[in-house]
Amino acid sequence: MTYILKPRFRHPKLPTNALGYTHRDYDGAVSTLCAGCGHDSISAAIIQACFELALPPHRIAKLSGIGCSSKTPTYFLGRSHGFNSVHSRMPSVLTGANLANRDLVYLGVSGDGDSASIGLGQFAHCIRRGVDMVYIVENNGVYGLTKGQFSATADKGSKARRGSVNTDSPIDLVALALQLGASYVARSFSGDKHQLVPLIKGAIQHKGAAFLDVISPCVAFNNNPESTKSFDYVRAHNEAVNQLDFMVEREAITADYAPGTVETVVQHDGSAIRLRKLAPEYDPTDRVSALTYLHQRHAAGEVVTGLLFVESDHGDLHHFLETVEAPLNGLGETELCPGPDILARYNAAHR
Amino acid sequence: MQPTDIRNPDYFHKVVDCQWACPAHTPVPEYIRLIAERRYTEAWAINWHSNVFPGILGRTCDRPCEPACRRGRVEKEPVAICRLKRVAADNKGDISGYIPPAPKQKNGKRVALVGAGPASLTVARDLLPLGYECVIFDGDAKGGGMMRTQIPRFRLPESVTDEEVDLILGMGAATRFGHFVHSLKELLAQGWDAVFVGSGAPRGRELDIPGRKEAADNIHIGIDWLSSVSFGHINKIGERVVVLGGGNTAMDCCRSSRRLGGKEVTVVVRSGFEEMKASPWEKEDAMHEGIPILNFMVPVEFTHNDGVLTGVVFEKVKAEYDARGRRSLVPTGEPPTHIPCDDVLVAIGQENAFPWIERDIGIEFDRWNMPKVDPRTMQSTLPNVFFGGDAAFGPKNIIWAVAHGHDAAVSIDKFCHGEDVNDRPPPGTSLTSQKMGIHEWSYDNDISTDVRYRVPLRETAVALADIRTEVELGFDEKLGYLEAERCLNCDIETVFTGPLCIECDACVDICPVDCITFTDDDSEAELRRRLNAPALNLTQDLYIGGSLKTGRIMVKDEDVCLHCGLCAERCPTGAWDMRKYLIDITQAGPACRSR
Questions:
Q1: Please, what is the average pLDDT of chain A?
Q2: Residues of chain A contacting residue B502, judged by C-beta atoms under 8 Å apart
């Protein structure tokens, strides 16, 4: 915890984006999390992604529940909309907000407790419905705010700092998300922004439910070498299937890639994401084989990271429900009260 | 790249830009913190130890520290270091405990000091406590040299000069004031163990153009005129005055003229306004007193009426640059301008003059007629004769004279003990953690965003009425505190211990100025280009930390680091620590000797 405000001064040569902002313009308040918390790195990655995409801060809504992770929206995007909901209810609140105003970028920030324990049902249904959002779980495997009990995502056999061993089977949120129909699924690591930032950018550009499981070591309670969520363990067992080189527009491939090592996925809006394959046999567009691969590698003790699955024309909740294009706050009286004739016709259709 | 060796005393010294830039290497942030704590006496003592004249320099220093100040790279203006020094001097209490006493038992060595200016006084200050017998010779009746004779009283009250000069004389220096040394040969014949020449650059440059001789009564050489004003020999000047020259002496001349009856005082310079040698603040002060500065005008003739000066004719010029970027001033072809005036002050430069040094006594001179002096040891080609101040390398300023004095004192001490003067002592350094608690530091790491405070001035009408009225009122305690808080504490260093680092990125994320990057090793040029924020200031080092588990390196660009300590606050393992780096340049005494 830091008591002073982050000094206003910035590097004079800081790059600016298309809006003329530096990444400092996407800052929030100084974090009150423990020094070295992985969550702070994820906050920095979100800041960097929004900066690089040149998103207008006032067009972003960040929502969260309860927990260390759910505190973090205070620490990034200080000029965006924010909603700190009841424990685990971020998905519901976000779904409502998204239905009311589909024009904002929705960023749901949650943790392994908030999403895999109390909020498992919320998580499942929000993903099922294909709400157009970025759902980030900052996954450290412990309940940090209550002093480090194992959470539902802790691996069986993982050891806590004080020596206790987790005996419960873990919930793999990535596998769940795949099963539940998420159309963009990725896993990354707070200690690897090189991988994480492009994945967040891809998720923001993706139309539909984009799920990111980010392993984020808890330096206070779960960063001992015997923990499978520690810096050392994740670095030693990280198996990235690909590296996402995010491109906003379709451009010629300038870098020299060996044939068959690059996959280009065109998104719904015409933008393209470019994946450099690191595991040649891995196909990120095949939901079933992705699940199988995940299970196999997990059994081998490895942590699979990268863009694990993407389906660019899946659609989202608005598409499925055929809702009106304009945000509700943009509708006038004539659209909202179309008159007795329309009402009569509507009622007649139900007779 | 190789990990940075922070044991090299220069590495962190360079990070303390102000101290590195100060010729006397005054530990600036250390005394600024003391001012903020209202510990003025201790702040004064730190200054006195390093630069010998805190009260004088706090009003008149050329402040090489300020252009170097890191604050000037993160916002518009540097910390007002110079005027903070004055705050320490103005508010100090009893300083007697800080003055080293001269021992009753002398060491038997006798040193003659020629000139009683800042260089000689510094040598005396350093040598007297060691038991040397120091005898200072000066043609003037009082000590202080150019500090007393050339700096006008409205910038430097005589009481301040008296106090700081007398402090040193009171340590036991013998004086031969009013005694001009006419022959170094004769002086050497008196059998001194060492002679120090700190006689300054006492000759003002002449302007030999038509009318100079005829109108001589109203054409004065700037530094001689200032000196006469200082001693009260001159107390008035004509209503219309033209000052020729663009240096600080010219600024002192024009401002003095305004106080001695000059109503229309004009400064005219050959070069452009921007290229003038005067410090920007001195130009500002002159213009504030209603003195216009005209540029690109070359004086070609003094006009006179039967020997009574009537004005100066100027040719208008413009600057042209050749392919190699060298400037030449070429006439614009416009008709010459005549500026009518009653008096002219010529302040176009100073020269050294050594008619009193015989050329056959073993002191070699170069082709510019300057003595050959070793810039490190200040020793001349005659081993027992040392030079310093303006006498050594031509006109500089007080703080350089002080630095020369310290260096010469070390050399004299070593020389008198039969040691090699080229074997220079290393500085004393210390690097101490400032951690007081989990997120508590012994210094105020909350960065003030205040902009530079202006020193309050006396009302112009009052200031112009009397040449002895000091214009600047100085910072009061409150302004002094607020200005002191602007200091970024660049001597509190970010020290990185690679083996402790878990590469969590916490420091990278929190750094407000993006100066930390963890990356793969590369050449320095390549690294500078691809850090989180480009490191384009090549005068500032990259701090490289190794021993990381992933095999990457930590690169910190020192350039705009705020020393806020947030990296260390956010570090979970203590791989970053904030440590105070103090560097004390070894002065004459047992510590500078090898046995």
A1: 91
A2: 36, 219, 223, 231-232
